[in-house]
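We treat protein structure as text, and this decision shapes the records that our systems exchange. The tokens are whole numbers drawn from a learned vocabulary of local backbone shapes. One such record is reproduced below, unchanged from the form in which we store it:
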Amino acid sequence: MIDMRRITIFAFILLVIIYLGSKYVLIDEKELPTSHTQQREIVGKELEVPGQTVFNPTKIGHVEVNSVEEIKARYQQKFSDLEAETNERIEALFLEAKNDYQEFSKAGDGSLKELYKKYADEGQKIEDETEAAFKVLYEEMSKELVSNGYNAAEAEEFKDKYLEQKELRKSEILEKALSIVRN
């Protein structure tokens, strides 16, 4: 069964297209609108035709364009290296604090508060340096994503993972420290 509503809409659209087409095709040059400025003719300009494809998805001109996955993989390695370096520094600090605490317990002299302050300050220094290094890497990655035509939000997963790992690491350190003090 033929739907009259659809036929009516189709006919109306067809009439509009025919009307607009005839208006532009059948215009007399004498009746051209005068509100537009006349276009200049370009004389003596040679247009250079590029020797290579302009819209190659992996290379535009002489600039190499990387995929999101390539960028993420490269920065994943950098973030992993930062995490490994930070973990090594934390472990070394933790072992040093453990040894100092054991010596403190045996000798019974000095202030536990001073010992805590010393290692809390060192731990904070490591955290601040890691935070600064992460921020630099994160901003570099965001800029590279944008410069390759991608959304900077693609880097958010790295920030979320970093914050999650940071909190997890803090909890682990606190648990280790409490187990040393309790023994």
Summary: Confidence is low (pLDDT under 50) at residues 52-56. The longest strand covers residues 59-60.
